[in-house]
Each structure stands twice: as C-alpha cells, then as structure tokens.
Hints:
mainly alpha, 2 domains, 3 helices, 0% strand, flat
Amino acid sequence: MSDDDKTPELESDESQTESPRAIARAERKAEREAQKAEYKADKLAKKELKKQQKADGTYKGVFKRMALFFRQVVAELRKVIWPTRKELLSYTWIVLIFVLIMGAYIGVLDFIFTKGVLFVFG
Length: 122
C-alpha cells in the first residue's frame, strides 16, 4: 500500500467552519459554566451574610426559628373565634343533612344513567 492510497489528513480546526450543532453545544456549555459561577457566587454571598448576622447577633439558628414559629402559631390560634357547643352541633347537622341530600342526588343520577346505558348497549 503506497502513501497515495492513504486518505489525506483533515485540515486544522481553524480552517474548517464549525457545524451549528457544535456551536450550540459550546453555547450550552458556556451557559452551564455561567450558571455554576452564579450559583457559587450566590452561595458565597449567603455565607458572608450568615457570618455578618452572626457577628451582629441577629442570626437565628434552627431551634430559635422553630420556637418563633410555634409562638406565632399559638398567637394565631388565640385570635380564632371558636364556635360554642350549640353552634358546633347545628353546623354538624347541617353538614350531615347536606351530605345525605347530595348522596341521594348522585345515587339517583347514577341509577338513571346506568339504566340508560344498559338500555342502549345491553
């Protein structure tokens, strides 16, 4: 086999134009790198803010935040107007009656549609 039979080597990348696919791939890679850099910068900024808050004494740890949450829950529950026993019983009866009426209504419709489907197809 002589040197003439061999395929010529490809020219350097600089002389060839890049395909649109390669350009898009490079753009996506650059975008990912930018997102990573932005994420790292945000993470570093959060760490710096946390350090600053700790230095100022304004940082609240996990347990302090949980305690604050439960105090706020209790404060909100104190604002609730709780029904009396009489109101509670009347509301319960209203809900039960409404559920029974709606159940009966849906049951009647189900019966009618079942008979209709059986009449047409069966």
